[in-house]
Amino acid sequence: MSAPFTFYEFFAGGGMARAGLGEGWTGLFANDFDAVKAQTYRANGGGDPLHVGDVWTITPDQLPGRADLAWASSPCQDLSLAGRRAGLDGSRSSAFWGFWRLMQALGAEGRAPRAIVVENVTGLLTSNGGADFTALCQALADEGYRFGAVEMDAAAFLPQSRPRMFMVATRADAPPGQPGTRLHGGRVRDAFARLPDALKSRWIWWDALAPPARNTDLASILEPDDQVVWHDAAQTAALMALVSPLHLTRLRQMQAGPRAVGAVYRRTRVESGAKVQRAEVRFDGLAGCLRTPGGGSSRQFVMLLERGEVRTRPLTARECARLMGLPDDYVLPAGTTRALHILGDGVAAPVVRWLAAHILEPLLTQKPAMAAE
Known about the structure:
alpha/beta, Rossmann fold, 2 domains, seven-stranded mixed β-sheet, four-stranded antiparallel β-sheet, 11 helices, 11 strands
């Protein structure tokens, strides 16, 4: 028996949106330009047709049928939605518009997806003074969609701070709703307030019950201490040297207490007018937002304070996969850097599952009446 819902997955990466949607969904088509990501997608059961290449090279006839959902986790490195919109030169064309011209073509053929989700960093809500977000809303409106943005942090489900924006659009009737603090933080409300009235009239305040309280912390997803490689004394000392004097004093005080596990990440701060690299440590049970490897500064570390000692080590690729809500049988590519590139670019699977269960699936089980154009 086939799954009741179908989807296209663009910028699919390692298939984390697919993993989050779950067994009730059948993938009709997927796309990513990265060969390693495509291999990972296939290795984890992605049997749907997979186009490996620039989204601009895809033609509408490659997209079978009419999908219930088109999911697009477009690259966050280029937030400019208001820029160049045509052509095959990926270095100058925003990838989003390569996806969007396919949605336009499907609409012209009467095959427009019933729902669309565009996932990106929360910076999309404010980039270019809000012009990029307005351009996204206008594109959706021009194709007959109603829409609304929600902001969700993976920390509601997983021990990782990872806020993301999800624009959910539909051609079906949907209640307008009311803004609420769970999904509509200040950035979403401000983005809505900047829209022209014509776009505000097409807005939907998506709402749903809050997810249950998270019952895991960083320590719970880590490998046993004796099964990982820890830094030597010199490496730990070098990392500690990057901690600010104020935070270093706090760490020294914590050394005398019970076992404590924290996450360490390096950032560049401006102090006394000069850029200084600092190691920042958090002991709130969360890791910082996973990022793709770049220049070495994006790698996160574990810090263990126990019996008066300080030990440090990098997070393993498997631990990072757990921080994205992936099971331990999720197949990672060989090599930590490759694995972290896929994981840092991904969407947290439990967030996708929650959106599917509480917004997408109830929406798609309604009668497919079309909203007024």
